[in-house]
Amino acid sequence: MSEKDKDILKIAIPSIVSNITVPLLGLVDVTIVGHMGSAAYIGAIAVGSMIFNVIYWIFGFLRMGTSGMTSQAYGRRRLDEAVDMLVRAMALGVGVGILFVLAQPVVKFAAMAAMQPTDDIKAYTSAYFDICIWGAPAVLGLYSLTGWYIGMQNTRTPMVISIVQNIINIAASITLVSVFGMKVEGVAIGTLVAQYAGFALALVMLCNRYGRLMRYISVKAMRDTKAMMRFFTVNRDIFLRTVFLVAVNLFFTAAGAKQGAVILSVNTLLFQLFTLYSYVMDGFAYAGEAIGGKYYGAGNVRAFDDIVRRLFVWALLLTALYTLVYLFGGRPFLRLLTDEPDVVSASKEYMLWAVAIPLSGMGAFYWDGLYIGMTATRGMLASTFAGAIVFFATYTLLFPMLENHALWLALTFYLVARGIVQTLLFKRYRLKSY
After folding, report:
1. Average pLDDT over residues 186-199
2. Which pTM value belongs to this model?
């Protein structure tokens, strides 16, 4: 194995471990409320989590934009620029988080209007929201720190933070519910405590490992008009891209729900196969952000092109592996998730769509990391916009004939379209920047 492959794995593996802790936490939260004696508690956690997932997902640009620009500064050996990037990202992340806290009545009203939970769930969801909204500054601040760490070629620190944060969340939630007799409020407080604990740990580790760089901190980072404009341009493109991603994912869930409980359950379970694939591919996308951005910022064409080729090989190998695993092990996996005979039976008809997801999604995941490393965010926005058009057009035209198959076909075309557009644009972005 070459040194560059080792560098890729050094970035990818900790990122994959961090990703895997996320569904574990959600599973524990559901398990805790699932033993409280009312389905309304489960519904409240599901709706409340969805509200914050959407909010924070939209602000994912704080991680991605920071990662790409920091990795380029690192490649140019401009540590002062890297620290300036951290200052800008932290100021924006924590500032937006504080605005969410101050505007929580408006945010809560809009979220409830959008989700429309039933009356028995609404009260518990409201209680969950009222507590968790106070974690917004910590969550968005940690997004900025995580992006900066990745840009500095360090995914081990975010991995440690993620693991510790989730352990604290689980321990606090179980203690508050089981020992102190709290209900949904206990789960929410456990989440809030963990969010601030993770943010505090990230700051402590920043000072311990990068304390020597803190001498570069200066308010001039906020007064540099040209740098600030580039920062906001990059993040604006990622923000708009995320809006299209959220629109497609929410519509996919809503369209399944309109077809009844069985189809919704089938789609939800099959989508878990796509999610599992994304956890691993995201790790290699992070490697593209960090290492690709480093060589891109340094102007090292040969090393950058080599990373592009090596990441493609890794993506191809992982896609082939996942496709084979899903082809032969997909149905047994679904039976582990549910024993509902109607759902298991109905899933057989749609299983091949889940098998097709890794191959159709490979290009989108592979290019996303490299595009972030190049800060070619306009290309990412263009590809996602094109993919969203393909998705909604396919669904609208074919649903009357194919029903739920049209929904899965639309998702497949959406992923393929993103990969194709980014492939076509890559050469232009690469040549324009060298």
Report:
1. 92
2. 0.85
